[in-house]
């Protein structure tokens, strides 16, 4: 098996590392929030893997075929054919990105205030849209220590799921969201057995199961590598089985469709399609374009298939693992094994002197930028927000700093530069200080909050 990337580089974009003094000034001007940093002031940008990847020559050439008709564009039907072939779902709606899919779906599925939406673990916008629609999101993740190996740390706790249904009543649960891979748990995969059992329980109680599949191809790769009986199956065949255990999907196509913008809704049932589609038209656009240009639909159709290529997946997951092994060998505490799209540093263990409500994961993002111009993001109690009833900070089971690696963008030499910055910060970890709010938005606060050092 070749060790190099399964592609050649055809175009490059200059990057630079500004001085320490310039980084200090930039971080202060950004109110210690990495979202406010200018990308030109960032050396290696690991804020997110969403829409930050590089498209292939096949995607760029497909964009020239974009049909920009408002309704019934041929580009839509190419996308629909691809989605149906991979998922088995006949009813497909594009959206401008994943949060457009979430807003449209939850606005129709959550029919009264106080309903529950249950997941193996929500990510930020999914949780936010459930709350904005009046629901109470509930995480039922299996509990595994970050430093212990388990092949599928993203699994739903199906025992707790059935207990929750019996305790609160199926009529009070809008739907079950199966997130694959499980981003908030550290990009961790979900096993086919767990997906199958979750679907069985849902059908027993007449509940709807929707996949959140931003990173569906990476999850299929982990099933192939780690779950008995799947080693000889192709990723596309694993995907087809996985989607058979659900009623539909929401997707940010900016991850495993390898595009810079776009999202998807897809359903097995026409009634559900009509119900959610009624919200797409006012929120996103007509059902066959959903806020996207025809050229974006063309690129998405190509990218959905490229992401299932076994050689690409081995490279993709392998690069993330390479960074994880560099950090782990230096003693840096991380979620182990690493997930498919990012290395998640256990900031609570990295910075044990910083209390959880001073957000150690966010404090570490500031330190990494100062150390090496690396932009990361917190995934922990800051992202969880406040309880809408009590107003108290919700404590996350994890205090992570996420290093999300864009697809087909950086080399392993860049990963070594990232590792050097993290390791240097770890050597001086006692000097890192917590953060406090100077401005706190009510919803999805981590995107636009202002901070100062404690």
Descriptive terms for the model:
alpha/beta; Tryptophanase; PyrdxlP-dep_Trfase_small; pyridoxal phosphate; 454 residues; seven-stranded mixed β-sheet; Aspartate Aminotransferase, domain 1; tryptophan catabolism; 2 domains; lyase
How would you characterize this protein structure?
The protein is of the alpha/beta class and 454 residues long. The protein has two domains: 20-49 and 309-453, Aspartate Aminotransferase, domain 1 (Alpha-Beta Complex), CATH 3.90.1150.10; 57-306, Aspartate Aminotransferase, domain 2 (3-Layer(aba) Sandwich). The chain has 17 helices and 14 strands. A seven-stranded mixed sheet has the order 2-8-7-6-5-3-4, sandwiched between helices. The chain has a three-stranded antiparallel sheet with strand order 9-12-11. A two-stranded parallel ribbon has the order 1-10. Helix 1 (20-29) runs antiparallel to helix 14 (360-372) and helix 12 (310-329) runs parallel beside helix 16. The chain is globular.
């Amino acid at each position: 098996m070749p060790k190099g990337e399964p592609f050649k580089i055809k175009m490059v974009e200059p990057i630079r590392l500004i001085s320490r003094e310039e980084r200090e000034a930039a971080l202060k001007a950004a109110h210690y929030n990495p979202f406010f940093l200018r990308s030109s002031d960032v050396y290696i940008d690991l804020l997110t893997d969403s829409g930050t990847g590089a498209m292939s020559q096949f995607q760029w050439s497909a964009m020239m075929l974009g049909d920009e008709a408002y309704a019934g564009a041929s580009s839509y039907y190419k996308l629909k054919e691809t989605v149906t072939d991979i998922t088995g779902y006949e009813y497909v709606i594009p959206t401008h990105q994943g949060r457009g899919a979430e807003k449209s779906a939850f606005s129709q599925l959550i029919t009264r205030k106080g309903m529950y939406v249950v997941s193996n673990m929500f990510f930020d916008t999914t949780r936010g849209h459930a709350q904005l629609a009046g629901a109470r999101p509930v995480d039922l993740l299996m509990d595994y220590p970050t430093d212990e190996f388990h092949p599928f740390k993203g699994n739903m706790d199906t025992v707790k799921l059935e207990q929750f249904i019996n305790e609160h009543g199926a009529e009070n649960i809008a739907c079950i969201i199966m997130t694959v891979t499980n981003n908030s748990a550290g990009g961790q995969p979900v096993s086919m057995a767990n997906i199958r059992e979750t679907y069985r329980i849902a059908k027993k109680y007449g509940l709807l199961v929707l996949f959140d599949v931003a990173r569906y191809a990476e999850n299929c790769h982990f099933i192939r590598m780690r779950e008995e009986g799947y080693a000889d199956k192709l990723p596309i065949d694993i995907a087809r089985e996985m989607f058979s255990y659900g009623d539909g999907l929401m997707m940010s196509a900016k991850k495993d469709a390898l595009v810079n913008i776009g999202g998807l809704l897809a359903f097995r049932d026409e009634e559900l399609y009509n119900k959610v589609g009624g919200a797409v038209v006012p929120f996103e656009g007509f059902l066959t374009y959903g806020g996207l240009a025809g050229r974006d639909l063309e690129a998405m159709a190509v990218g959905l298939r490229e992401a299932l290529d076994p050689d690409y997946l081995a490279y993709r997951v392998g690069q993330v693992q390479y960074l994880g092994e560099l950090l782990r060998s230096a003693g840096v505490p991380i979620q182990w094994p690493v997930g498919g799209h990012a290395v998640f540093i256990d900031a609570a263990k990295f910075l044990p002197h910083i209390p959880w409500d001073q957000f150690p994961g966010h404090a570490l993002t500031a330190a990494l930028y100062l150390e090496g111009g690396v932009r990361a993001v917190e995934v922990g109690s800051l992202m969880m927000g406040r309880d809408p009833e009590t107003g108290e900070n919700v404590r996350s089971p994890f205090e992570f700093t996420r290093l999300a690696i864009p697809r087909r963008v950086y080399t392993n030499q860049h990963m070594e530069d990232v590792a050097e910055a993290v390791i240097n910060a770890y050597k001086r970890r006692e000097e890192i200080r917590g953060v406090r709010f100077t401005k706190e938005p009510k919803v999805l606060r981590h995107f636009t909050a202002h901070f100062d050092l404690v």
